[in-house]
Amino acid sequence: MTYLLRVSLPDRPGSLGSLAVALGSVGADIVSLDVVDRFDGVAVDDIVVNVPHATMPDALITAAERLDGVAVDSLRPFGGVLDAHRELELIDAVSDAGAGAPQMLADELPAVLRVGWAIVVEVTGNGCRLVARGESAPLWEGDDVPALEGLEHATGLDESTVPEEWTSMDTALAAAPLAFGHVLVVGRPGGPSFRPSEIARLGYLTGILRTLHAA
Question: For the structural domain made of 86-214, what CATH number should be given?
Answer without folding.
Answer: 3.30.450.40
